[in-house]
Design goal:
- Its cofactor is [4Fe-4S] cluster.
- This is Radical SAM protein.
- Keywords: 4Fe-4S, Iron, Iron-sulfur, Metal-binding, S-adenosyl-L-methionine.
- InterPro entries: Aldolase_TIM (IPR013785), Organic_radical-activating (IPR034457), rSAM (IPR007197), rSAM_sf (IPR058240).
- The structure is a single chain.
- The chain is of the alpha+beta class and 416 residues long.
- The chain contains eleven helices and 21 strands.
């Protein structure tokens, strides 16, 4: 397993004299053969700025940084793949923070790139190569012409064409899961928010948050255009917005109007579920699917990352339980990080949380974050660290009726 590195121009190389390593939390670890899979289609290899890779020099057996003007390399995995290790590196400038991406360890072996990852879902629908650019441009033009005054379509056209957001692209291609963002405000201050960061955070937000409140008419236009087949999913709560349930009234009004006209497809909300009263109203208006974002079922870890305003984990749990009891197909958007999610205390707390809420589905999502900043923010480990591969096995064993995947699906069971 040769170490992979990049030069200052971004060219990639493997070094036959250096053995690749990985990282779990702040520990440098050996990569196991059974953790490695060929680099998935749709993955991207990137240099980690202001870093140098750490490996084992084969001749001496010494673990140290690779010399020279080089960078560590990580893989950005497409949906459907859960990373098992992050790249092994040291920072050359500790004041610099890595951009908000989910970096996975990558090596060169058997004449190809391999990554430390597990295939947790079918990656086909979220493979960027399945988004035809020419067709997308045509459909964007068609819907912008059909709805020239709809600000949401204009906003989503930038998400699709500028940021290459696949959910926004689906909205124009009228397939699978589409997006309908509604909120410019949030009741959390997530440390790794990808749409809004304080000026002094050191993290440049990779995309821009919407800055207007859509009308019910604008929302209904998009929902009715998308919900044309039984398998269609339209989702509130996107990376380009705040917390959708802060706009519960317009969501409820839009849902009721849409369901007066069609029963096709599924209405989903991606939410932190902290505003329990608002979630109850949305559920009662006819919600089909709910995906709740969480990073932990431990209060101190959850609060450190989300910085919730006016709610706590108990509210999140109540929202999930209410939705499940009303027949909504519930899942969590579980933000995972090697060396943290696989801690003994984290696993015990999350398994208990899932059992109490009647959750149906765990979406394993690689946390986009600068590792050092995240590890400094959260509590130190209290128990054993099991490794991500074993963690997935434990979840499967302890939660046999819960699906483990990567993204929102049409549910395999009837919903209300």
């Amino acid at each position: 397993m040769n170490l992979v590195y990049a030069d200052e121009q971004g060219n990639l190389f493997d070094h036959p004299d250096w053995l690749a390593l990985g990282r779990s939390g702040d520990m440098i670890i050996e990569l196991m053969e059974d953790e490695l899979i060929p680099l998935p289609e749709g993955a991207t290899l990137v240099g980690l700025p202001h870093t140098r890779p750490i490996g084992i020099h084969a001749a001496s057996g010494e673990m140290r940084p690779l010399p020279g003007d080089v960078q560590a390399v990580g893989a950005l995995l497409p949906q459907g793949f859960t990373r098992l290790c992050i790249p092994s590196y040291m920072k050359t400038d500790k004041t610099q923070k890595l951009p908000l991406f989910g970096y996975s360890a990558v090596v060169w072996k058997d004449d190809g790139f391999y990554v430390a990852a597990h295939k947790s879902d079918d990656p086909e629908r979220w493979n960027p190569l399945n988004c035809d650019t020419d067709e997308l441009n045509l459909q964007v033009e068609r819907l912008l012409s059909k709805y020239p005054d709809n600000r949401l379509y204009k906003h989503l056209s930038n998400c699709a064409l500028g940021y290459e957001c696949l959910t926004a692209s689906n909205t124009f291609l009228q397939r699978w899961e589409g997006a309908v963002p509604v909120s410019f405000s949030c009741n959390a201050g997530c440390f790794g928010c990808i749409s809004e960061q304080p000026d002094d955070s050191g993290f440049p937000a990779p995309q821009t948050r919407m800055n207007f409140k859509p009308t019910v008419d604008e929302i209904v236009d998009i929902m009715l255009e998308h919900l044309r087949t039984p398998e269609a999913i339209i989702s509130f709560g996107q990376g380009c917005e705040g917390e959708p349930s802060t706009q519960a009234k317009i969501i409820i009004d839009a849902m009721r109007r849409v369901r007066d006209q069609t029963q096709l497809g599924f209405i989903n909300i991606n939410t932190n579920a902290g505003l329990t009263d608002h979630i109850r109203g949305i559920v009662d208006a006819g919600l089909n699917l709910m995906r709740v974002s969480t990073i932990s079922a431990l209060d101190d870890h959850y609060n450190a990352y989300y910085k919730p305003r006016g709610y706590n984990l108990k509210n999140v749990e109540k929202s999930l339980r209410y939705a499940a009891d009303k027949g909504v197909y519930t899942s969590i958007n579980y933000l995972i990080f090697p060396g943290v999610t696989d801690r003994e205390e984290e696993m015990e707390a999350m398994i208990g949380f899932i059992k109490r809420t009647g959750l149906k589905f765990i979406q394993m999502r690689n946390l986009n974050i600068d590792p050092e900043s995240y590890l400094e923010l959260i509590p130190k480990p209290q128990g054993e660290i099991y490794g991500m591969k074993q963690m997935l096995d434990i979840f499967a064993e302890e939660l046999p009726d819960v699906v483990i995947g990567s993204y929102t699906h049409v549910p395999p069971m009837p919903v209300k």
